[in-house]
Design brief:
Distance between the termini: 5 Å
Radius of gyration: 16 Å
Shape: globular
Number of domains: 1
Largest sheet: 7 strands, mixed
CATH architecture: 4-Layer Sandwich
Number of helices: 6
CATH class: Alpha Beta
Helix content: 10-25%
CATH topology: Metallo-beta-lactamase, Chain A
Strand order of the largest sheet: 6-5-4-3-2-1-13
Order of helices and strands: EEEEHHEHEEEEEHEHEHE
Number of strands: 13
Bound molecules: nickel (II) ion, manganese (II) ion
Length: 228
Amino acid sequence: MVKLTFHGHSCWEVQDESHRVLIDPFLTGNDLADVGPDAFEKLDGVIITHGHGDHIGDGVEIAKKTGALVVSNFEIANYVAAKGCTSHPLHIGGGAGFPFGHVKLTIAHHGSTGPDGESLGNPAGVVLTMGGRKIYHAGDTGLFLDMKLIAEMNGPFDAALLPIGDNFTMGITDAVKAAEFVDAKITIPMHYQTFPYIEVNPNEFVQKVESQGRKAAIVEPGASIDLE
Ligand code: NI
Ligand code: MN
């Protein structure tokens, strides 16, 4: 069994019987986060989709403290290594296996400058295979047709984590179409209500996805969902 725990915004903790990883650990400055960076003692990996501060977040601090391996694009892997982290560089279309599972980077249509304006490569989505389950975390992105190809080549997905907040990423209408393209067993919204720009109603998203005959659910910050 794999347990997915939401920590607000785009931050997900993924856990199986023996390993635990964090994706996009933006906790400090995230009013929706249910935990702070100190909450993690044992951690195997920190996966970062792109360089924006609301995704790199506390990644460097958490990875240094726990010894977790940072997995991200080449530029971010170098950036965090220069700050004292252990990291593994990937790039879009490539994947690699790790003790905790397998990570592959996919395209995402967005930006990826760092917290101080550094150029940190291209933004990505993530396909994480862990504990026999497959999760697609879309990162920050607009809608794109190749989500169909991502699902065809890497799925079927047990869960899809899709941004819905509009303004910086897909809004609800486009994210509902993305849910159709990705066709995961369950679709879960993220990247909403953290800031005034992205205040949308996730219930509307869930209702629209379910009206297409797909399963969707809101996971509140601090709550978990089991992927059986
Ligand atoms: Ni972003
Ligand atoms: Mn973002």
